[in-house]
Each structure stands twice: as C-alpha cells, then as structure tokens.
C-alpha cells in the first residue's frame, strides 16, 4: 500500500509553498491544538528574503528540504506544477539490512540555496538536512553562459563539494520564447547542454536534465515533465537511502557505547528521535513508532537494572524529587517544553515518560489504532508508579494519584476526540480500565484530603489539598476554553465534599456500567465494593449493603477466602447498624467459625450469638441458623456396622461433630428427625435381602457436603440417590423383576428460591431452615460441645420393619436453633422382618458328575423360630441320590458370623424322600450343614417314563448341554425341598459337569472290522481308568476281541485314552450294532473303593462293505517303466461285494434289458499335490448292476510330473442322486455313511513292478443320496529301492 505524507493542511492543488504558521492560525480559532513544535530550522522559499532568521513550526507538514540555485524567477514560475506533480506517483523504497520494501509518495520543501543550509561537521539533525540541490537555468546564449552562468555553476558546485554533498542535479529549461528572443546569437540546444555536461557532468551525464516547453500543453512537454519528475524522485530516494543508512550506523555506534562512562541517555534519545522524525516525515509511522518503542524498552531496562543494584550515572537526573504532576499532554504531537528539558538533561522521570508516551500516542492515532493507546496508557501508569519506587524518587502524598487521575482523563479525552460515540460504545472494553483506575485514584485523593469522612476535611487536609493543586501548575492553553478538561475536574472535585461525591459517583457508575456491558461482572462488583466502602465512610449502610453482597458472591464462587472474610465483616457491620438481628446473627455465626479471623474477633462474634440466645423471650419464636456455620457433621457410624437390624434389635448411631466455635458451647438438646418408609417385602414379595448388606456402617462427610449450605458453593445441587428394588416369586424366591427408584426426589425437583440458578447460592448468610417436627426423633439432652471433634451417641428406634432415613439435625442453644437440613449424603438404616431363606451351593467349583460331591445348605431363619421336630423333606431322584453319612454336623451362627453352637443332624432316607431333622434355632440366625450327593452320568440309554415329585409335580429328566465357559458338558439337577415354614415347596438347582467326552468310530481293513472308543478328560483333574469293556446287546454270535494291553490307564487332564476292539462274526455281519462301553474311574492316587462306574452306549449302523475299488498304473506301450513326462494308463476297477438290500431295490434306479437294477456311480480322478497330470477325461458316470461281484473298469490317462516314489492320484467314487430326490432322507450326520478299506502301494518310477491299489468301500444301501471318497495320502520315499 502507498501512503500519503500530507495528512492535514493544504492539498496537492494548493498554490505556492506551505508555511506552517498558516496551520497554526487555522488551528487556533477552532480551539484545537496545532500539530506542531518549535525548533530551529529553515524557512520556505518565499520567506528567504527576510534578513532575520526566525524559528519555524515544524508540523506534520514537514517535507524533505531541496535547495534551488540559479534562476529563481524561472523556478518560481514552475513551482506550482512541480509541487503538484512530484508526489503523485509512488516510488518503491528498498532499504538496507533486508527490510521489506515500501511504496512511498515523495514531497519536497523547495528553499533557496545558501551555504548556511549545508550540514556542518557533527550535525546529526536530519530534518534540516538538504537531501537534494538543484541548479535552474534557461540559458541558450553562448556568451551569457560563458560570462555568468558557468561561473555561477562553478561556485555552486565548489560549495557543494567543500561540504561533501554529491546529491545535485542541473535542470536546463528550453522554451520557444527564449529562442525567439535570442535568435541571432542562439546556438543549437544540444550545444549548450553538451557544454554543461562536458564542464560539470563528465562522469555523471544523467545529472543534467532538459525540460522542454514546461508551460505548454503538448506531448513533448508532458514527456519532458515525466522524465524530470522521475529523475527527481529517483535522486531523492537515493539520497534518503544513503543519508539514513549513514545516520543509522552512527546511531548504532552511539548505542553500543552505552556501557562507557559519560554516555548519556538523553543525548542518545535526541539522536534516535531524529530518526523517528524522518520516518514520520516520510509518512512511515510504523517505523517511527518502533524507534520510540526501542527507547522505551532501553530506558525500562536501565530502571530495572537500577532496582537490581546496577546503577548508571545518567539516571541521577531522573531521581530528582517530583515538583510537577500535571499529567500527560496528548493534545500536541510534540511537547517542546518537555523535549527541551530532555535535551538539557533536566527532565524528571514523569517528564520523560509523558513526552515518550505522547509521541507514541500521536503515531498510533495516525496508524488508526486508538484502542492500543488505552492499553499502553494503562501499562504506562502502573509502570511509572513502580519505577518511581525503584528509583526512590521523592514524591509527596497524593501527587502520583493526581498525575494518574489527570493522565487517565487526558487519554480518554484524546480517544473521544478521534472516535465517534458509536465506536466508543462498541469498544468500551478498551477504555473501562482507565475509567476504573481514575475512579480508584480519585477515591484515594478524597480519603487523603478528608473529603470522605463524616465530619469533612480538617485544616491539615485543606493544606494538603492546596499543596496538591499547586503541583498541577497553570492550566495548559489547549484546555483553557474546555469546560470538561481533566484539570478543571480534579480542581473542582477537591474543592468541596459535595463536588467530590458527585464526581466520584459519576466515575464509579460509569465504570460499573461499562464492566457490566462487556460481561466482566467480577470487576463491576469490585468497583461496587469500593463504592460500598465509600458509603460506609459516609455513614450510609443502606446503600452500601447491596454492593457488598454482590462482591461477596464473586468471592465465594471463585474461592477467595480472605476477601470473603473481610466482606462478611463489613456486611455484619451494616446489618448491625440497620438493626436486622436475624441476618446479623447468621453473619456472626459465619464469622465466629472463620479461621481467617483472629481468635479475639471470633470470640466477639460467638459471644454476640450466645448473648442473644440467653435472652428470655417468646419460646415459640426461635431463630433458625444453618448448622454448618456452627458445627460440621464429619462422621456417622452405625452399631452394628451393617446398618441393618431385625425388628426389636438394638441399633446405635454415633455422630462426630466438629465444633467451629472458639469457645465451648452448651447445647440444651441435640435432635435428629427420622423419615420412616414402610417396607412391604413380607406381604407383597418385594425383598431387598440381596442389597441389605450394602449399607455403609461408617459414613464420612467431606467438608461442605453434609448439607447444601454456604460452604458447598462448588456443588450445583444434591446428587441422585438411587436404590434397587427387586420383585421375587413367593414360591421359590426366584427373581421376577428389578427396578431403580430415586430416594431424594423431594430435593432434586424442588423449586428454587427467587429463580436463582444453582451455581449462585446464598453466600451472604445461610438460608433459613426450619426444623420439621417428625413422628420419630433421635434426642440427647444437655450436650457440651468443645472446639474440635465431639462424639454423641443415639439409640435408634427399630420397632417396625422399614427404612429409616435421617433427614435433619438440630442443635438448640436457648433461643437459637442450628439446623442441618438435609443431611447429605443420605443416611439410612434398615429394620427388616425377613422370610426364611434356604440356599444350596457347592462347596467347591465345579461340581463333577459321577463322583461324590459336597454341597452346602444355608438356612437364614429370618423371623421364623426353628422348633424341635422341624425337618426338611428332600425328594430323592435316581440321577442325583443323596449319599448316606454317619455324622453330619450343623453350625449355628449369628448374622455377624459369630458361632452360636453346633448340633448333629438326624438324616433318614426312604425310597423317595430324605428327611433332615433341624436343631432348634432362634430367629435371624444362620444354620449351615453339608451333604454329599452324587450325580449319575447319563449313559445315553432310553429314557423312562416321567416321574412325579413329592409335591405332585412332574419330574423332568435332566438333559446335558454345552456350557459356553467350559469345555465340559453341564447337567442341571433340580431338587424339591418341603420346608416347615411354608406350604410351598422350594425348588433348588445344582449344575454338574461331566468330566469326560466320549466318541466312537468304526474302522475297516479288508474284510476285518474294528471299533475304537476315545475317552477325553476335559476337566482339571487326573483320573485312573480300569476295567474297560465293550459289549454288544443284540447279537450273541458276534465276538468283540479286545486289543487293549493295559488294564489300568492314567487319564491326565486335557488328554485322551483310545481303546480298540476287533469285531468277529460267523455267518453274516449285522448291519446295525448296539454297543455299550463301560469302565471304572476315580481320581488319581485314591483307594480302590473310590472307583465309580462309567457307561457309554452307542449304535453302529450301515457297517457292511458294498464296493471295492482297485487301481493300477501301467507304463506306456513299449516301455518297461513309467517315466516322468510320458503318459501312463490308470485302470480303476469298481466291484460290487454284496447283494442289494430292500432299501436299495426300492430306490429310483434304472433297469437294463435283462431286468436288473442299476445304480449310478460317478468317479473322479484328481491330484491336489501336483504329482500327476490327468490327461483327457478325469471324471465320468458308470452304471453298476445291483448284484454281487458286478465289476466295472475305467481307463484314464495320467502323466507323472516328477521322478521318485509318488503317491497315487486321489480317486473319488460318488453315488448319483437324482434331482427329484427328497432332501429329508439325509442320514444322521453323526453316523458314518460309508466304510473304506484301502491297501496302499507305493509306486516307483523306473521300477519293473506294476503298481495296484485296492480300496474296499462300504456304501450305505438304505440312503440313496450319499457320496463316498477314497483319498490316497501316501508319501513318497527318498530311497530308490523297490516299493513297499
């Protein structure tokens, strides 16, 4: 972006050079301060004729100086056009040290050339430095040039050379009028220009520029003007870059000498400010601001070093006592008085800071950043106060307050002058800090000058006021005619009490409104608290109390303990003056327990409460206060710790109260109200027996959580208290449904007072809570509470079953009641009347079937008394008999697991019932005993008819099932128990796990059959197996010969044992076999008496062999051996071994011409191991006659791919199923549909043997849709011997 230098004054179309004194005359009638300063400089061109040099006002209209020599009349005629056109086009300014280039508009102040204007040696002023020198001539006559113009040019150039000034240019103006006037003696233009260039511009021909017909409106004139303006801009920019670079180098050299003795900050300040002036003159306000910021940072660092003990000699001038505190002056861009004092080294710290900030403020306003001015001003005011303390500058009391107050208002007035009201309202967040700071300082001045007290100022206060006003000095000329100037406001505010109050209230309310508008409520309440202190000093507590309460809310919500204590003490003073007794007592109770106060102050407020409590008044009217301010409930303990007792039992409640008072307090009565909730579990089947034991016996109350009092300001309200409700069946106590209920609904959904949000509780004083008189109360009389922890014990009522909840706690001290309501977290105990409950559970997990296992019977007597002669009637079952025991001891214990006694049980068993006589047991005691049971492992036999239990219900046979958590098969066994306390039978279930998994298989080898039984131990125990036998129940002629060599077998956990029997028959092999596998087992390392039987029944079907498959591989014709890569012949021969059964004849088979039934078989040859390549047809369909010894041969071409011992290709034989066959006749997938008998031959290439393979296939004749596969998994040998 390009920037314009001229921001006020004349525009680019004005005629003639601008005199800055005209700007001063224009500014004064408008009551505005001129943007200017006084120091020595040069006059514009039209004032050069005056003989006496006068100081000029350098304002923001300052421009770089360009001297003009030669024909002054010629330049005057061209001045207007030159001044208008020079700044029109921007130029790119490329600076050194890698700084970013900028586009600037160049203007110039053209003055008459004088040798006095040239800079002297050591002069560091850049504003009076001529950056370019121009010589004007329109000479076209040779004689005139030689006689006068040349000599004048030589004198001009010699003067520049003597001052080392190389920035010059000669402009030759050519016009037709001059040619006509001197036509006889005129030479061609080029000859005069060439002469000047040869005489003065030998090496710099571009320093001579020709301007043709400047006053004419022609293309030639316009082109000539453009060339001249471009040359002037370029030369000016080159001069700027060169001279500024040299100046910056000198300035850095001077700054690097700051550690040397004799270095002065004031001298360096003037040098760097000169650079800032130049940047400001070039309209580079950001660069100018950087120079002042660097000076600010450098001075601040020196002050901080001084505070750390590193002193500088030049800082002594800034440690002088402050004599003037007139505040900032921002209505001039340059305060020359303070600048001169800085230049002379006589400025104070406040003078330097005021001048430096005024310059920064001016530049920020030109940069259109007024809100940064307010931010910097607030930092400046706070830093100046600290710097005065670091430098130990002597300042009278109140002087700094006056300086800060005037400076705040001066900044605010300056911002108001450059912004409209809408902008001020929208950006009040930037100015509110200054308003609040000014308010605070005005209050300090009022307190210092006695304008806040009730009696008014004293003579000493008046003398102090006169001294403060004297230090302000006279009012500045810029604000004399302003009725609202900071000087007049301060002088008026200190003149009388009424004026001070008016100004202070005006500032305070303005600051609070701004804070509230921007949402800074904390700051607004802080200003309000200061205003409340002002009202209290004036003796007006009515208007002070609301502001204090608002401030207290902020302190409480943010956890500021000391401000909370201080503000509460002030509120107590207000309430006492206003005569509000109850409010005063509540606040006094808070202060009496506040550890941030001294002991004497706490005792004072405690005595205030006790004095009121000891008065004899109306006993029906008592003042209720929150207990949390008097004592805190820290612990509650039940005895017994379960907090659950049966009706009529003794329950004690021990409370631990931490007394917050500084002295012992005698309490007439300490009472706790109880809310009773009737428990209907005994009549409606609703029981919470599973959750009774979850009540906490000891409850710890954290500080601030025992109630919703003022200390719990961080909580938004009570949390939900949930309880579980279960509905159980009255017959077997099984769970029917479960639910959740909220126990403190009356607290959760209650209406909030005055619509206040939950996060802003009443933090001034606790809310009034009345003690509710309930039907049942816990009371204790005449208790003395010592400071600290105190223990009080109550005896709780337990007559009626139900739930008792402690709601309120009340301590009565005379006419004062301290109430804790509600008690949070909720405290309750339970009085129950429980039905007897009988449970059966295993003594160890898991229960293994087939072995004696101990189960534990637990009887919770509840309200029932077990009398002599009461017995449990258990229904006997075949699958889980109860084993007799010679001695069975019952253990009787209390609910707390304390042993009451032991007794021997009497157990009598019959065919269907086992009776267990129970010993006498009192209510709410626990009776425990153990029985040994045995779960019979099901053998898979046929199930008998359903039996009936003793109660008439049908007994369902237990079924085994797979459990997802264990590999063992589970069996659920149910037993029915008749109890003397109920007319209903109790059904209980036990889950047993079978430790074994058994499977069987039928194996064939030629015409021989074998039966294999696998027993797998899936439990974690080790067993011993013995007497393993296999029998067939239907065919006596069938012989099963055992091939097992060991009688006893070790069966480890997660391992298996395999048993094998060969099947031998005399006539024909039966198609179906009914087998029973039996064995005895016991855990490892136990006696022989511990062996238990184990049976496994299974059925084998379709064991007859139907087909045999024989395969033979022949070498190619003419070859003796099979060779890799040559096609060989594979001959497959399928032979029917048995006559068809009735089921096969009934199947939908084709009939040939001879009337025989045929069966469709499909064959397929494949090699998945890539040893053989099947050439040609690899599969096909054949028709097999359904008669014995029927044979069919198939020829297939195969080619071996490798040499060596190769396994035969895989041959599959499948029975064809017609498309209309029903899928429902599929056989049981657990049965083996076919039996394959295979004889394997290894085939060796290059051998002289012909290889044959024989497969015996047992095909299911009763199932028409089955497939069977002969898979040959024969591994080749690496040795080239004869095949095995």
UniProtKB/TrEMBL annotation:
Domain TRAPPC10/Trs130 N-terminal span(s) in chain numbering: 61-373
Positions of the UniProt region annotated as Disordered: 1-21, 683-719
Any single biological process term in GO: early endosome to Golgi transport
Biased composition (Polar residues): 690-717
Organism listed in the record: Cyprinodon variegatus
All residue ranges annotated as the TRAPPC10/Trs130 C-terminal domain in the record: 1071-1227
InterPro entries given in the database record: Ig_TRAPPC10, TPR-like_helical_dom_sf, TRAPPC10/Trs130, TRAPPC10/Trs130_C, TRAPPC10/Trs130_N
The protein's name: Trafficking protein particle complex subunit 10
Pfam families per the UniProt record, alphabetical: Ig_TRAPPC10, TRAPPC10, TRAPPC10_1st
Keywords: Golgi apparatus, Membrane, Transmembrane, Transmembrane helix, Transport
PANTHER family per record: EPILEPSY HOLOPROSENCEPHALY CANDIDATE 1/TMEM1, TRAFFICKING PROTEIN PARTICLE COMPLEX SUBUNIT 10
Domain of life of the organism encoding this protein: Eukaryota
Domain TRAPPC10 Ig-like: 839-992
Keyword Transcription regulation: no
The UniProt record lists the keyword Ribonucleoprotein: no
Cellular component GO terms, alphabetical: cytosol; TRAPPII protein complex
Residues passing through the membrane, by range: 1239-1262
Protein localization: Golgi apparatus
């Amino acid at each position: 972006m390009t920037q314009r230098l001229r921001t006020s004054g004349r525009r680019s179309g004005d005629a003639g050079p601008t005199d800055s004194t005209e700007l001063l005359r224009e500014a004064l009638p408008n009551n505005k301060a001129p943007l200017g300063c006084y120091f020595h400089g040069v006059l514009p061109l039209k004032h050069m004729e005056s003989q006496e040099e006068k100081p000029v006002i350098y304002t923001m209209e300052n421009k770089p100086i360009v001297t003009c020599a030669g024909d002054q009349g010629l330049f005057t005629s061209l001045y207007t056009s030159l001044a208008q056109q020079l700044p029109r086009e921007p130029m790119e300014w490329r600076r050194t040290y890698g700084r970013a280039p900028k586009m600037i508009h160049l203007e110039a102040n053209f003055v008459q050339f004088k040798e006095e204007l040239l800079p002297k040696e050591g002069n560091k002023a850049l504003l009076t430095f001529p950056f370019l020198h121009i010589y004007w001539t329109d000479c076209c006559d040779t004689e005139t040039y030689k006689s006068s113009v040349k000599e004048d040019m030589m004198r001009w150039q010699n003067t520049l050379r003597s001052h080392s000034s190389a920035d010059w240019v000669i402009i030759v103006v050519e016009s037709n009028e001059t040619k006509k006037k001197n036509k006889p003696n005129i030479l061609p233009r080029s000859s005069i220009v060439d002469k000047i260039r040869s005489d003065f511009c030998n090496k710099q021909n571009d320093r001579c520029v020709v301007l043709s017909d400047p006053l004419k409106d022609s293309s030639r004139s316009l082109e000539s003007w453009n060339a001249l303006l471009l040359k002037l801009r370029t030369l000016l920019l080159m001069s700027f870059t060169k001279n500024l670079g040299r100046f910056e180098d000198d300035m850095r050299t001077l700054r690097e000498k700051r550690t040397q003795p004799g270095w002065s900050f004031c001298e360096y300040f003037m040098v760097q400010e000169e650079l800032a002036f130049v940047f400001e003159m070039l309209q580079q306000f950001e660069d100018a601001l950087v120079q002042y910021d660097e000076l600010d940072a450098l001075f601040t660092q020196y002050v901080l070093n001084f505070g750390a003990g590193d002193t500088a000699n030049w800082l002594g001038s800034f440690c002088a006592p402050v004599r003037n505190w007139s505040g900032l002056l921002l209505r001039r861009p340059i305060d020359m008085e303070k600048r001169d004092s800085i230049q002379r080294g006589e400025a104070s710290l406040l003078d330097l800071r005021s001048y430096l900030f005024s310059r920064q403020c001016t530049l920020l306003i030109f940069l259109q950043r007024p809100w940064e001015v307010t931010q910097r001003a607030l930092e400046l005011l706070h830093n100046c106060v600290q710097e005065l303390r670091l430098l130990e500058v002597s300042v009278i009391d109140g002087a700094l307050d006056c300086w800060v107050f005037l400076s705040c208002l001066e900044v605010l007035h300056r911002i108001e002058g450059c912004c409209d009201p809408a902008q001020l309202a929208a950006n009040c967040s930037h100015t509110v800090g200054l308003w609040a700071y000014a308010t605070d300082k005005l209050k300090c001045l009022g307190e210092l000058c006695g304008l806040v007290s009730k009696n008014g100022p004293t003579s000493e206060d008046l003398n102090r006021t006169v001294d403060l006003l004297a230090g302000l000095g006279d009012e500045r000329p810029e604000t004399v005619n302003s009725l609202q100037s900071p000087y007049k406001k301060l002088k008026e505010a200190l003149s009388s009490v009424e004026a001070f109050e008016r100004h202070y209230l005006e500032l305070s309310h303005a600051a609070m409104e701004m804070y509230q508008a921007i949402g800074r409520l904390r700051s607004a309440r802080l200003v309000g608290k200061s205003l409340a202190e002002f009202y209290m000093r004036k003796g007006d507590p009515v208007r002070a109390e609301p502001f204090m309460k608002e401030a207290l809310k902020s302190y409480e919500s943010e956890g500021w303990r000391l401000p909370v204590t201080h503000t509460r003490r002030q509120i107590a003073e207000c309430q006492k003056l206003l005569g509000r007794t109850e409010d005063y007592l509540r606040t006094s109770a808070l202060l009496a327990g506040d550890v941030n106060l001294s002991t004497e102050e706490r005792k004072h407020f405690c005595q205030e409460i006790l004095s009121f409590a000891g008065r004899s008044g109306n006993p029906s009217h008592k003042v209720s206060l929150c207990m949390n301010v008097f004592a805190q409930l820290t612990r509650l303990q039940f005895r017994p710790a379960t907090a659950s007792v049966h009706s009529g039992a003794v329950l004690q409640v021990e409370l631990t109260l931490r007394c917050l008072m500084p002295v012992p307090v005698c309490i007439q009565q300490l009472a706790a109200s109880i809310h009773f909730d009737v428990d209907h579990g005994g009549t409606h089947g609703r029981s919470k027996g599973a959750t009774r034991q979850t009540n906490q016996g000891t409850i710890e109350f954290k500080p601030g959580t025992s109630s919703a009092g003022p200390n719990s300001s961080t909580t938004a309200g009570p949390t939900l208290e949930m309880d579980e409700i279960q509905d159980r069946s009255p017959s077997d106590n099984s769970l029917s449904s479960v639910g959740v209920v909220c126990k403190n609904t009356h607290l959760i959904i209650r209406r909030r007072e005055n619509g206040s949000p939950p996060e802003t509780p009443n933090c001034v004083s606790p809310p009034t809570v009345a003690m509710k008189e309930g039907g049942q109360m816990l009371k204790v009389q005449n208790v003395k509470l010592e400071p600290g922890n105190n223990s009080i014990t109550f005896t709780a009522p337990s007559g009626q079953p139900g739930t008792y909840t402690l709601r309120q706690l009340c301590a009565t001290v005379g006419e004062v009641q301290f109430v804790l309501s509600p008690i949070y977290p909720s405290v309750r105990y339970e009085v129950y009347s429980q039905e007897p409950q009988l449970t059966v559970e295993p003594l160890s997990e898991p229960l293994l079937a087939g072995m004696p296992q101990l189960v534990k019977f637990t009887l919770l007597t509840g309200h029932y008394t077990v009398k002599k002669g009461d017995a449990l009637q258990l229904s006997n079952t075949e699958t889980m008999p109860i084993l007799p025991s010679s001695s069975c001891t019952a253990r009787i214990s209390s609910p707390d697991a304390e042993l009451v006694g032991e007794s021997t049980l009497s157990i009598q068993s019959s065919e269907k019932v086992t009776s267990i006589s129970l010993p006498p047991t009192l209510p709410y005691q626990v009776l425990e005993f153990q029985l040994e049971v045995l779960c019979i492992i099901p053998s898979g036999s046929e199930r008998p008819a359903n039996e009936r239990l003793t109660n008439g219900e049908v007994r369902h046979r237990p079924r085994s099932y797979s459990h997802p958590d264990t590999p063992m098969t589970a069996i659920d066994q149910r037993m029915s128990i008749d109890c003397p306390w109920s007319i209903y039978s109790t059904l209980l279930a036990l889950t047993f796990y079978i430790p074994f998994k058994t499977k069987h298989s039928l194996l064939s080898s030629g015409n021989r059959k074998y039966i294999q039984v696998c027993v797998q131990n899936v439990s974690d125990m080790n067993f011993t197996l013995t007497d393993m036998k296999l029998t067939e129940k239907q065919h006596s002629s069938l012989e099963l010969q055992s091939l097992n060599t060991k009688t006893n077998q070790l069966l480890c956990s997660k391992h298996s044992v395999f048993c094998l029997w060969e099947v031998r028959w005399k006539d024909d092999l039966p198609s179906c076999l009914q087998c029973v596998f039996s064995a005895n087992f016991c855990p490892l390392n136990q006696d022989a008496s511990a062996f238990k039987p184990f049976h496994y029944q299974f059925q084998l079907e379709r064991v007859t062999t139907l087909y045999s498959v024989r395969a033979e591989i022949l070498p190619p014709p003419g070859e003796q051996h099979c060779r890799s890569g040559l096609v060989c012949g594979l001959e497959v021969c399928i032979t029917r071994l048995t006559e068809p059964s009735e089921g096969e004849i009934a199947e939908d088979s084709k009939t040939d011409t001879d009337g025989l039934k045929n069966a469709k078989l499909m064959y397929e040859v494949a090699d998945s191991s890539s040893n053989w390549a099947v050439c040609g047809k690899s599969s096909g369909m054949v028709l097999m006659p359904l008669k014995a010894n029927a044979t069919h041969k198939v020829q297939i071409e195969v080619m071996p791919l490798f040499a060596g011992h190769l396994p035969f290709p895989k041959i599959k034989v499948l029975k064809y199923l017609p498309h209309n066959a029903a899928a429902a006749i599929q056989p049981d997938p657990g049965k083996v549909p076919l039996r394959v008998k295979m004889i394997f031959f290894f085939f060796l290439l290059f051998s002289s043997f012909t290889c044959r393979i024989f497969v015996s296939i047992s095909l299911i004749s009763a199932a028409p849709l089955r497939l069977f596969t002969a898979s040959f998994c024969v591994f080749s040998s690496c040795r080239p011997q004869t095949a095995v």
